[in-house]
Amino acid sequence: MDDRMNTIAGWVLGAGIVALGASIVTGEIFHAERPEKMGYPIEGVEVEGEGGAEAEQPIAMFLAGANPGKGEGVFKKCGACHTINPGGANGLGPNLHGIMGQPVASRPGFAYSDALKSKGGTWDWETMSQWLKSPKSFAPGTKMTFAGLSKPEDRANLLVYMNAQGSNLPLPPPPAAAGDPARAAAEAADQPAAGDMGENEPVLTEQQAAKQPEGRVMGEGAPATAGREGQAKTKSE
């Protein structure tokens, strides 16, 4: 009986040793590091913070079509803290009459935050647009609690309305003209820029140009006038 129990105990112990050894070997073969980010990527789904949205166009792109009437409606969101009438009192925010073009944080009698006073510069179109987009991003630490206007169309409408209330800043040129000096100069002179030939303007060969009446030679293939006069002079001599 004792021999039988010893045999069974031996087999159990041996099986345990084999199982432990197999577990160690399997762990070494199929060992894998823990991933830095848990989960599985799904094709077509953008991870937050990666890729991002397209960069926003400059505010000048929206100002040309901006509507001050709509801007007055947008200003109602500001009316709880600001006045914009001439001589209006400061409230939680300063009076904004004639504010466009003025130095930042310069309205007399209003206690601006150090965050805004340290910005410097003037309230031009782009600066005011960035402030209205996100006051806390523009001047971290500002006392202004307004969340901001994310839509550039709303900001453009509000800007032209504010500009009409005691300010007179000229609208900035559209970015396309501003980025192309030659085109901007041509537009100012009311002439086509280089390379802007009319779609239907004919391009003649020299043979076609030669058949046109005297004084009406046109097209890229037309011979130079000076050359024709020289030929005529040679024949007469």
Describe, in plain words, how this protein is organized in 3D.
- The chain is mainly alpha-helical.
- It has a domain at 67-163: Cytochrome Bc1 Complex, Chain D, domain 2.
- The protein is 41% helix and 0% strand.
- The chain contains eleven helices and no strands.
- The termini are far apart.
> Helical segment tally?
11
Pattern of helices and strands: HHHHHHHHHHH
Give the second-level CATH assignment, the architecture of one domain: Orthogonal Bundle
Q: Provide the residue-averaged pLDDT.
A: 75
CATH class of one domain: Mainly Alpha
Determine Rg (CA atoms, Å): 39 Å
Biggest sheet features: none
CATH topology of one domain: Cytochrome Bc1 Complex, Chain D, domain 2
Number of DSSP E strands: 0
The residue fraction in helices comes out at: 40-55%
Please state the overall shape, judged from the principal axes of the Cα atoms.
Answer: rod-shaped
Task: Give the class from helix and strand content and strand pairing.
Answer: mainly alpha
Query: Strand-residue fraction?
Result: under 5%
Provide the low-confidence segments as ranges.
Answer: 41-52, 193-199, 219-237
Distance between the termini: 146 Å
- Within CATH, the superfamily of one domain carries the name Cytochrome c-like domain
